[in-house]
Specification:
By secondary structure, this protein is an all-alpha fold. The protein is 77% helix and 1% strand. The longest helix is centred in the C-terminal third of the chain and has 34 residues.
Length: 306
């Protein structure tokens, strides 16, 4: 079964990259003629910086998850260092080395095995939960036919359906935890809610950056902003759940182009996907470099993780 999953994932990744390549060839002349203005370059730099800073929301959530799972000996600054130092490894083929690196450095820092495994499980669910919530909200409240959004004549039904889906997901995770012998107290439940709030905040910032990037390539109407955030959230989920895709490479871009083309046109969608990948890669690099600054601050004598 694992071999079959890897084989299917490899086919999806290769097909996505091939499709993107053909699209770039087809619209190569129009893309080549695009020249970023000074304001556009400044906007891209600002988006990259914001995205890099947004990574600290993820590392804060990871620290809280470690505390929830009983790891009280680690300090918050160390968790930021470990997380930012290893997150860049998601760009390696396999898309799991950032988890492996976090586990290795966490164990070296004295963090318990149970806390590291538990935090990884709940982080995976948490980010999918937050991104899925944005995706579901956009799909349910802002249905599209082509470019025109349909009237939301029954928002109450949509809201009940959305809350029902989210509640079902929470129940499933709770049962999984109970089956593993994990029983959370009231205080821990409140802490888990705070972690979920952090993940929601991460994707709110993620959505704002997405709208800023799309605004560089084309004029964006106010009514299109939610649709853009929804498309980027769905693309993020698609890249995250594809096994082996380094940082969702190829899969996210194809998903974005397919979802945004009816709204923006294929050229603007391709350019937006390309620029957003540039922003996220630059932001992740800045987040990685920040680990050395934090390590220097913590040790006082140089960039030492310990």
């Amino acid at each position: 079964m694992p071999l079959l999953r890897k084989f299917v994932a490899s086919i999806v990744i290769c097909a996505s990259i091939y499709w993107l390549g053909q699209s770039f060839i087809q619209h190569g002349a129009q893309l080549h003629n695009w020249r970023p203005t000074t304001n556009a370059l400044l906007m891209l730099a600002v988006c990259s910086l914001i995205y890099g800073c947004n990574g600290f929301l993820l590392s804060s959530a990871w620290w809280r998850l470690l505390v929830i799972h009983g790891s009280t000996e680690n300090d918050r600054l160390l968790c930021h260092i470990i997380y930012s130092r290893t997150q860049i490894a998601k760009y390696l083929p396999g898309n799991v080395f950032h988890f492996a690196g976090r586990y290795t450095l966490g164990r070296d820092a004295g963090i318990s095995k149970l806390a590291l495994i538990g935090s990884t499980f709940y982080e995976t669910f948490g980010v999918l939960f937050a991104a899925g919530a944005f995706s579901l909200a956009g799909i349910l409240f802002y249905r599209q036919t082509g470019i025109q959004a349909l009237s939301i004549a029954k928002p109450s039904i949509d809201l009940v359906l959305l809350l029902g889906i989210l509640f079902t997901l929470i129940v499933i995770v709770h049962k999984i935890a109970r089956s593993r012998g994990i029983v959370y107290k009231k205080k821990q439940v409140l802490q888990l809610i705070s972690v979920g709030t952090i993940y929601v905040a991460f994707f709110l910032v993620f959505g704002v950056i997405a709208c800023m990037v799309v605004g560089i390539t084309t004029t964006v109407k106010m009514g299109d902003l939610v649709l853009i955030v929804t498309a980027f959230s769905i693309a993020w989920v698609a890249g995250f759940v594809t096994p082996g895709a380094p940082a969702g490479l190829g899969v996210r871009e194809v998903t974005l182009v397919l979802l945004l083309s009816p709204l923006l046109g294929e050229v603007a969608s391709l350019l937006s996907a390309l620029l957003f990948r540039l922003v996220t890669m630059t932001g992740d690099l800045l987040f990685f470099l920040a680990s050395f600054i934090l390590s220097y601050r913590r040790s006082g004598n140089g960039p030492d993780l310990a």
